[in-house]
Design brief:
By secondary structure, this protein is an all-alpha fold. The protein contains 17 helices and 3 strands. It is 69% helix and 2% strand. It has a 3-stranded antiparallel β-sheet.
Length: 343
């Protein structure tokens, strides 16, 4: 397990073996320390060992050699927050002008700090990533403020990379390519460091996974996104309202109407208070609540909501808008079910 955790990197495995031998540490204890105190463990060398050969020393010496390419350190700290493999290179397009970006990646690859897979993706060894995420006051390349900025920038780039329509099968390969990096980003730091960009990436990932039937993971993403939006923007912000609607819809898809309906009700109340009755978020909240009531067999509450949503949508969007036909079909379905029950 130690070899796997260290990515079978010969130097790292040699360092771990020497440390365990000199200190009497078991492999399992070493793994635990590696997880809890990465900076100390990466810098650790067994007594009499060659500390110049530790991973941390190699990291620092390499970046010292790259001081004439300051973008190199920025890129490493940025890439540290993603999954180690198959990082889409185009995530970095806005980081710098193409010549400077290409030069920095090329120099990092020459020093084996990153791997250019020549298929539009990059890879970074997990140990290099762990170092880049771990502040060290003695290492100028691992200042806490620089690492925090890289984390937030990584979230911003990831949120912007998702396609607008994750329901279009043409966009599914892109969504699948971004999911591991969304998971990597949100696994490597606690929710209290989430930004609105983190929440946006989580919302996109959650919506895609919900559409693919991975409802448990989707619910976790939507819950964390909503928590971030509420903390950062407040309960009444449109992004918060949209996020709460997404979470309710995920519960709805999972068949948990007991969780979905109260969220839909709260969202509709807030949307009607903060926005106007014809706002897209208000229409969506009301229509979704109507659908949940219908699923619960409460047609007496569902039908008036469907009718109000259709009236407001026709007023705001016009009778020829494609959404009108969808809303009208939902209302007729509920009315037909109500008539059948009455008969």
């Amino acid at each position: 397990m130690v070899c796997a955790e260290l990515g079978h990197l010969a130097l790292a495995v040699e360092q771990a073996a020497a440390y365990c031998a000199e200190t009497g540490t078991s492999p399992n204890a070493y793994l635990d320390m590696l997880d809890r105190w990465p900076a100390e463990m990466f810098d650790a060398a067994a007594q009499g060992g060659d500390s110049a050969r530790t991973i941390a020393r190699i990291w620092r010496l390499t970046l010292d050699h790259l001081t004439d390419t300051p973008l190199a350190g920025d890129l490493l700290r940025l890439l540290a927050w993603y999954a180690p493999d198959a990082i889409p290179r185009d995530l970095l397009n806005s980081v710098a002008a193409p010549p400077g970006l290409a030069a920095a990646i090329s120099r990092l690859a020459a020093y084996n700090m990153v791997t250019d897979n020549h298929d539009g993706t990059l890879s970074v060894h997990r140990l290099v990533q762990a170092l880049a995420r771990t502040p060290d006051p003695h290492d100028p390349h691992r200042r806490a403020d620089d690492i925090s900025r890289a984390r937030d920038h990584a979230a911003e780039l990831l949120a912007a990379a998702y396609p607008d329509d994750n329901r279009d099968p043409a966009n599914w390969p892109r969504c699948r390519a971004l999911l591991p990096h969304t998971d990597g980003l949100t696994t490597h730091h606690s929710p209290d460091h989430d930004t609105t960009h983190t929440a946006a990436a989580l919302s996109q990932a959650g919506a895609f996974r919900q559409g693919q039937g991975a409802l448990s993971i989707a619910l976790q993403a939507h819950q964390r996104a909503l928590t971030a939006y509420e903390r950062l923007l407040g309960a009444d912000h449109p992004s918060t309202l949209a996020s709460r609607n997404n979470l309710a819809a995920a519960y709805d898809s999972a068949g948990d109407l007991g969780q979905a309906i109260p969220l839909y009700e709260q969202n509709l109340t807030d949307a009607e208070r903060v926005l106007h009755s014809g706002h897209p978020l208000t229409l969506a909240s009301r229509n979704n609540l109507a659908g949940a009531y219908e699923s619960a067999g409460d047609l007496g509450q569902a039908i008036p909501l469907y009718e109000q949503t259709l009236t407001d949508a026709e007023r705001v969007l016009g009778s020829g808008h494609p959404l009108i036909a969808v809303l009208r079909a939902g209302m007729k379905r509920a009315q037909s079910a109500s008539d059948s029950n009455a008969g």
